[in-house]
Design a protein that fits this description.
Order of helices and strands: EHHEEEEEEHEEH
Number of helices: 4
Largest sheet: 7 strands, antiparallel
Shape: globular
Helix content: 25-40%
Distance between the termini: 24 Å
Number of domains: 1
Strand order of the largest sheet: 1-2-3-6-7-9-8
CATH topology: Aspartate Aminotransferase, domain 1
Strand content: 15-25%
CATH architecture: Alpha-Beta Complex
Length: 147
């Protein structure tokens, strides 16, 4: 099966311009902090994925169904409702460690691969950085770079 045409793919839009265009000042500042954390953890320059996701690195995936695609290894989106942080690693064999960190993080909610934070000033940024680092490490183990 060929790769499906994804709506969310890397593009050449400016990450700095996107962050500067976030209307809410607090969310704009939060986006700069989350970007700095991701840059430290990943060592990657970010790219825009679609119109509103700031992504770091990429990986190719293939589901059992044959569906294939390329997505960022990690990233975030400063959305109006909450900062959405994409923790693609899903923690595999490190779930206990992740659960202990989530318990210390501060106010948040979780989706399948998403961490939602309404106010960055109410969470422990060191814990957040550790969660992002674990996800990044797992993604690199699951999808090693091929070049």
């Amino acid at each position: 099966m060929a790769k499906a045409e994804l709506k969310t793919k890397a593009n050449d839009a400016s990450v700095a311009e996107f962050i500067a265009s976030v209307p809410d000042a607090r969310l704009r500042e939060d986006a700069a902090v989350v970007d700095a954390i991701h840059r430290r953890v990943t060592g990657c320059e970010p790219k825009m994925w679609g119109p509103s996701i700031i992504g770091y690195g990429s990986y190719d995936y293939r589901y059992g169904s044959g569906h294939e695609g390329t997505m960022c290894r990690g990233g975030f989106s400063p959305r109006k409702a909450a900062m959405t942080i994409y923790l693609m690693g899903n923690y595999c064999d490190r779930q206990d460690e992740a659960d202990a960190l989530f318990a210390r993080l501060g106010p948040h909610s979780l989706g399948k691969s998403c961490l939602y934070i309404k106010r960055l000033d109410q969470v422990d940024l060191e814990v957040l950085e550790r969660l992002i680092a674990i996800s990044w490490q797992i993604m690199n183990e699951m999808y090693p770079d091929r070049g």
